[in-house]
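Handout, section B. The chain below has 124 residues.
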Amino acid sequence: MSDERFEAGMAIRRRVMGDGYVDRAVARTEGTESAQVQRFITENVWGSVWTRDGLAPRDSSLLTIGILTALRTTEELAGHVRGALTNGLTRDEITEAIVQTAGYCGAPAALAAMRAAQQVFDEA
C-alpha cells in the first residue's frame, strides 16, 4: 500500500469530514479485520479520487451527495452533508441537490436523504 497516498487521503478526509468523524471511523475498526477497509478507502477513495484536480472539493461533495442518495446510504450521506458544508455548499444547494435526485432516484430515496440532511442541519 502507498503510504504517500494514504497520508494524502487522510489529510483530505480529515479536512472534509472533520477529525472527530475520522477518528471515530478509525477507532470503530481498530484491531479488527475491518481496519483494512478503512485503510483501503483512505488510500484509494480519498487519496486517489478526492485528491484529483478535475473537480473542486465542493463539486465532489455535490456529486457524492447525489450518489449516496441514489444508493440510499443515509449514514454515509450524513457525514458527507457535513463535509459538503465544510467544502462551501450551502444548505439550499444541498437541499436542491436532494430535490433533483427525486426525479431520478425516486421519492423514497430523496425523502430518506433529506431526513439525514435535515438532522445535520438541525445539529449545526
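Note. The chain is about 80% helix and 0% strand. Compare this with the example in section A.
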